[in-house]
Amino acid sequence: MKIKTRFAPSPTGHLHIGSVRTALYSWLFARHNKGAFVLRIEDTDVERSTQESINMIMDSMAWLNINWDEGPYYQTKRFDRYNEIINNMITYGTAYKCFCSKERLEYLRKVQIKAGKKPRYDGYCKQNKISGTIPHVIRFCNPQEGDVTFKDQIRGNITFNNKELDDLIIRRTDGSPTYNFCVAIDDWDMGITHVIRGEDHINNTPRQINILKSIGAPIPTYAHISMIFGSDGKKLSKRHGALGMLQYRNEGYLPEAILNYLIRLGWSHNNKEIFSLSEMIDLFTLNKVNRSPSLFNIDKLKWINHRYINQLPAKYIAKHLYQHIKNQNINIQSGPPLTKVIELFSKSCKTLKEIAYSCRYFYEDSFTIDNKYLNFTHYQLLEDIKNKLMLTANWNIENINQVLLSTADEFKVNKKIVYMSLRIAITGHDGSPTLTHVIEAIGLNKTIFRIEKAMNFIKNKKNNI
User: Fold this and answer.
1) Entry pTM
2) Which residues sit in the known binding site for ATP?
3) CATH code for 376-463?
4) For residue 87, how many other CB atoms are within 10 A of its CB?
5) Rounded distance, CA 62 to CA 367, Å?
6) Which residues contact 345 (CB under 8 A, 6 or more apart)?
7) What is the CA radius of gyration of the chain?
8) From 3.10.105.10, 3.40.50.970, 3.30.565.10, 3.40.50.620, which CATH number describes the 4-75+227-302 domain?
9) Which residues are documented as binding site?
10) Who is most buried in 180, 288, 292, 316, counting CB within 10 A?
11) 376-463: same fold as 78-225?
């Protein structure tokens, strides 16, 4: 039997971290077993489904390199198929028309709640064989006796009593089929062997199994992944750092870091933390997925992202960094290559956005110098450094460092004072990567220009006193 899994998001908003983890686990299980992975868009909620959300789903999966073998299939394009099966079910007595009004159903619900019972449809139209042509829904004729038991690949055997399941609506009055019915038929038609999804779908599983049994369809194997909570154990939200998937890209995370973080968010292999994609595929199995809830930790994600910034080739990182540079409106034509910038900032910056924000001074001279850092006592230091740098035969880190040390020695000042005054003059900041490496990357001409600019700043400051 060829393994076949699916990812079936609803296009009603952003693709969030929990959904992407579901997609990843389904994709890895298929790849590990040399099977197929299907993308299905569950867009039966026509009022809330949008093309924008569909585009975000596609873009997110493309960015993460979670590729699909079949699809995307759209449920709204399969209504004829669903209705064909529903009509057959009516003919064979496994579904029936229900003409009950909203008022009757609401009254029934109140009576049942008052009696301490679970609200459920009482089968009135089925028992009385009501018929007609006025607006109606179609209900599934759920078994009234026995149990539904399935072996969840993460949680073990799960059993539901059929008496707890009512005759759910499978087609609305407007003729549109409902979620649980569409899902069951899709899984059958598409040959899905393993359904891997969130634990919030556990209660849907017995209903879908009963529908599949009623039409003689095979039952998939199910695996329900636990929820993801915030670090405080509460429902995951933006305050925990949870974002739509493309927002993580915009915040400067690498796709490899996201995938690595997500696979560890409920799955483990010994004490290993960092996994290449090929290792994920080779090692992933459902029996290592934890049934306990996972806690989302943005600091852990940043730690993993930082590791990947330092481990992946600089040329590859530069391709992802370039978009962030564009977002900051930085023109990189007159400065060092991005690979050089990555080399300088990879140890201190945990995201690509942070690198892009920090590296502007490599390409632009128009930064502001803070009054509190440079005064006339630094003027002669900067002038001496400028003159020595202009006479430097070979522009390299070692020679630049020698210039700075000799200036500190000649003026008998702590080298920290020399380095800080020059750092402010060159970058406009009191913090940067190793100064000599920064100066070497910026180049002689820009360095001299900025030192002269800082000297003029000091002159003007003195004249204005």
Assistant:
1) 0.91
2) 238
3) 1.10.10.350
4) 13
5) 37
6) 354, 355, 358, 359, 433
7) 32
8) 3.40.50.620
9) 238
10) 180
11) no
